[in-house]
Amino acid sequence: MSLFTWILLFSLLGGVLSVLAAALFLLIPGFTRERLLPHFVSFAIGALLGAAFLALLPHALGGTDDFHLLGMTVLLGLLGFFLLEKMVLWRHCHHEVCEAHTPEPHAHDNHNAAGTLILIGDGVHNFVDGVLIAAAFMTDIHLGIVTALAVAAHEIPQEVGDFAVLLQSGFSRRKAFVFNVLASLTTLIGAGLAYYSLADMQQALPFVLAIAASSFIYIAVADLIPGLHKRVEFSQTVQQIILILLGVAVIYLAHSTLH
Predict the structure, then answer these.
(1) Pick from 70, 75, 108, 170: most CB atoms within 10 A?
(2) Which of 242, 29, 9, 41 has its CA nearest to residue 155?
(3) What are phi and psi of 198, to 5 degrees?
(4) What subcellular locations does the record give (predicted)?
(5) DSSP secondary structure letter of residue 90
(6) How far apart are CA 167 and CA 245, in angstroms?
(7) By the 8 A CB rule, do 147 and 55 touch?
(8) Which of 92, 90, 97, 85 is nearest to 165 (CA)?
(9) Residue pLDDT, tens place only, 219-252
(10) CA separation (Å) from 109 to 80, 105, 121, 171, 236?
(11) Following CA atoms 71, 154, 131, 89 in sequence, which dihedral angle do they give, to the nearest 10 degrees?
């Protein structure tokens, strides 16, 4: 199987298949879904941090001698994603109601705009995911698989939240599903463009991996972890730690086994 085929298949896993999984998840009764979703989020945190620190950054460090520039790239990546989130182009919502997406009760126009912004932000984010997956595969096929798994781990709970916002914005279930699938196709576009644009720029790959790591770190630390602090019971904290460690362990085992 060619490298390009690997990239397309696993970009599909991180994009369209995540939407399908989220759509099936929405079929679960609301109360049960609300209880299960935080557990998926905890696992996603571990998967993202594991992929960033155990896979992406080590490969990035191994691909260049300019560690100072690489560290600066990670820092600038974190600041860049902060600015994107400020512009509501990177906002993730892993709950059916969140302050970034819930409009005022009387603001009907804002209500509809929330759904549109979600689709735009999702499309941009999926495009970037495609670029990162392609860069990882072009560095090492095993790294690409681990990166795609980490993307899928956090895309599923994100898509569940996005579906909820679209439904609240007046989209029908069918329309929300179709538009979410269309937004997810930008993953393939990003992967395809990255494959051809980075093919002759091997020296740039370590820095793209550094941006991928900063993306995963930012999503885990700035977006997902604050939601866990809403559940302060000791039993909930123990469950969160166990699931985070499980996410890290899955990435570690996948990366070590593939190698």
Answers:
(1) 70
(2) 41
(3) -95, -5
(4) Membrane
(5) S
(6) 33
(7) yes
(8) 97
(9) 999 888 988 888 889 999 999 999 999 999 999 9
(10) 29, 11, 18, 13, 38
(11) -90
Q: Give dist(CA 130, CA 123) in Å, integer.
A: 11
d(CA 255, CA 140): 11
In this prediction the pTM is 0.82
Tell which residue, 227, 218, 190, has the closest CA to residue 74.
218
CA dist list (Å): 204 to 76, 148, 211: 15, 20, 11
Phi-psi region of 170 (alpha: psi -120 to 50; beta: other; left: phi over 0): left
CA distance linking residue 12 with residue 77, whole number of Å: 24
- What's the one-letter identity of residue 128? V
* Residue segments in the chain with a per-residue pLDDT below the cut of 50: 97, 99-101, 103-110
**Cα 125 vs. chain centroid, distance in angstroms?**
8
